[in-house]
Amino acid sequence: MIVVKVGGSAGIDYDAVCADLAARWKTGERLILVHGGSGETNRVAEALGHPPKFVTSPSGYTSRFTDRQTLEIFEMVYCGKINKGIVERLQRLGVNAVGLSGLDGRIFEGRHKDSVRAVENGKVKVLRGDHTGTVERVNTGLIDLLLNAGYLPVLTPPAASYEGVAINVDGDRAAAALAVALKADALLLLSNVPGLLRHYPDETSLIRAIPAADVESYLEFAQDRMKKKVLGAAEAVQGGVKRVIFGDARAGLPITAALEGAGTVVS
Question: Which keywords does this Swiss-Prot/TrEMBL entry list (predicted)?
Answer without folding.
Answer: Amino-acid biosynthesis, ATP-binding, Cytoplasm, Kinase, Lysine biosynthesis, Nucleotide-binding, Transferase
